[in-house]
Design a protein that fits this description.
Number of strands: 11
Helix content: 25-40%
Strand content: 15-25%
Number of helices: 10
Radius of gyration: 23 Å
Shape: globular
Structural class: alpha/beta
Distance between the termini: 39 Å
Order of helices and strands: EEHEEHEHEHEHEHEHHEHEH
CATH superfamily of the largest domain: Ribonuclease Inhibitor
CATH architecture of the largest domain: Alpha-Beta Horseshoe
Largest sheet: 9 strands, parallel
Strand order of the largest sheet: 3-4-5-6-7-8-9-10-11
Number of domains: 2
Oligomer: single chain
Length: 339
């Protein structure tokens, strides 16, 4: 079992420095000028201890949990992170758990730890964090220039900060809190040059057709416009609520087709409309116009008939066959290399 208590410690062949030598500018002060010691929340200690003792090899999955959303309560725990690291940062209100002796040692060591070197971090999960505060949470994005995948919620300003400081962002999952944030969120996403996968999750509101038209204009290969209610309870059918309607699907498809016409060619495209319970055959007719649809998720679309679903299955199958025919020589060469 690893004991990250003093100096550097090894896990999975790598060295973890629980007391980083790198200090942020706002912590570059003498010991007498620094703030009093603060303890780690109990859940942080438990997550770190569990991972170090039982975690898989070559993985440094670290769960950092902040008290009451105040980021000054959390500190870095790793100087070096693997390239496939996922860093979860959740804001919770309170914690109540008994600490083991090992966890108590983690707690004492945590207050002296400094901010991490996150230059190799590729995936980041932010929950209930305000990134506008550059002195605390917002400064985190400045430390992850190589970030490729991001999951976040909150105001659209969070998304603007992410696209500003993370130019290599490829995948973004944004839980939209209200309809008033959609326009700003779509504009922020349009400013990410490397973006390929976008997920917009609606929380108790419906997308307007013009908003879906703007979403279809995003130059991405995968677009997921899902309902948060469906994600929470996929087995419950809510025919009285749908975050996307037939008109919205038509606007979305029109925008995607127009984008491909301007680019003079179509690419493999994946689409998800989970929870859109009001969609009918009119939406199906629109989806059939997509040139190369290789994946479609319509979970929770309760009003679609069996015939509608069969037509969509045939559409996706045709798109995959079209993709296979275009990449057949490359795929065969790849198989030869593997064998």
């Amino acid at each position: 079992m690893c004991r990250p208590l003093e100096g550097q410690h090894s896990t999975s062949g790598r060295q973890l420095d629980w007391r980083s030598n790198v200090l942020p500018s706002h912590m570059d002060a003498t010991p007498s000028e620094q703030q009093p010691q603060q303890h780690w929340p109990d859940v942080v200690i438990k997550n770190i201890a569990t991972h170090l003792s039982k975690g898989p090899e070559r993985t440094a999955l670290l769960h950092l949990v902040a008290m009451c959303g105040v980021s000054s309560h959390w500190r870095s725990v790793a100087r070096h992170l693997d390239t496939d690291t996922t860093l979860r940062f959740d804001s919770l209100d309170s914690f109540a758990a008994s600490l083991s002796p090992l966890e108590s040692k983690f707690r004492r060591a945590g207050s002296a730890a400094n901010w991490p070197v996150l230059s190799r971090l590729q995936r980041l999960h932010l929950v209930a964090v305000n990134l506008q505060d550059l002195s605390t949470s917002g400064s985190l994005l400045r430390k992850v220039p190589g970030l490729e995948a991001l999951v976040l919620d909150g105001p659209a300003s969070n998304l603007r900060m992410a696209t500003l400081y993370c130019p290599n962002l490829v995948e973004c999952n944004y839980r939209v809190p209200s309809e008033y944030c959609i326009d700003a969120a779509l504009y922020a996403l349009s400013q990410a040059p490397q973006l390929q996968v976008v997920e917009l999750t609606a929380s108790n509101f419906a997308f307007m057709p013009e908003q879906l038209r703007a979403a279809g204009a995003l130059d991405v290969s995968e677009l997921r416009i899902d309902s948060q209610l469906y994600k929470e309870q996929p087995s419950v059918t809510r025919t009285c609520y749908s975050h996307v309607d037939n008109e919205g699907v038509r606007a979305l498809v029109d925008s995607i087709c127009k984008r491909w016409t301007i680019q003079q060619g179509s690419r493999p495209f994946k689409l998800s409309l989970c929870g859109a319970s009001s969609l009918t055959h009119d939406a199906v007719a629109a989806l059939l116009r997509l040139p190369m649809l290789t994946e479609l998720n319509i979970g929770g679309c309760a009003r679609l008939t069996a015939m509608d679903k069969m037509r969509l299955v045939a559409k996706v199958k045709a798109g995959r066959e079209q993709l296979e025919s275009g990449l057949g020589s490359v795929r065969r060469h790849r198989h030869n290399l593997i064998m």
